[in-house]
Amino acid sequence: MSRVAVHLELIDAGWCHAPEFAVLRTITTRELRFPTVVGIIRHPTAGLGLFDAGYAPRITELVRSWPERLYGMALDFNIPPEADPVAQLAARGIDTSDVEWVLLSHFHVDHVGALRDFTEARLIHSAEAWDAVKDLKSV
Predict the structure, then answer these.
(1) What is the tens place of the pLDDT at every residue in 52-85?
(2) What residues have CB less than 8 Å from 38, skipping those under 6 apart?
(3) Which of 7, 24, 88, 99 is 20 to 30 A from residue 45's alpha carbon, by CA?
(4) What is the pTM of this model?
(5) Which strand (E) or helix (H) includes residue 7?
């Protein structure tokens, strides 16, 4: 049996804060931090891919206007320039066009926020994840 060497590197792509009561349905107002992680996967036959795309810095601009501002008020986004997935890939010598595929766990903004930067990548997702969002109307 031959072995296939797959390399996985996790990068920090920012985080958000939300009050505990909004997430865990408690009465506590303590702020919880939710990190966003992107996996860079180098596979010998499937090529270069990502597990989720992470936040993009443009998300902070998007949530400044209505109605998206409500989302921004609920979640305090923290996406410093060094957390930008595109910048982190570039620092590793990877151009966005080098990414052949993106495996999406689900369609929350912390997993797909930077997806627009990977226009040449094939998207891989479960039918259940797509069914959960496919009928949402654009605002």
Answers:
(1) 999 988 888 888 888 888 877 777 888 888 999 9
(2) 10, 11, 13, 50, 51, 52, 53, 54, 85, 88, 114
(3) 88
(4) 0.85
(5) strand 7-19
Distance between CA atoms of 68 and 128, rounded to whole angstroms? 25
Long-range pairs, 93-99, Cβ under 8 A, ≥24: 94/40, 94/48, 96/120, 98/48, 99/48, 99/49, 99/50
Q: pLDDT for 4-44, tens place per residue?
A: 799 999 999 999 888 888 778 788 888 888 899 999 999 99
Per-residue tokens: 55: 């936040």
Distance of CA 27 to the CA centre of its chain: 29
Residue 50, both tokens:
């990502």
Q: Are 9 and 40 in contact (CB under 8 A)?
A: yes
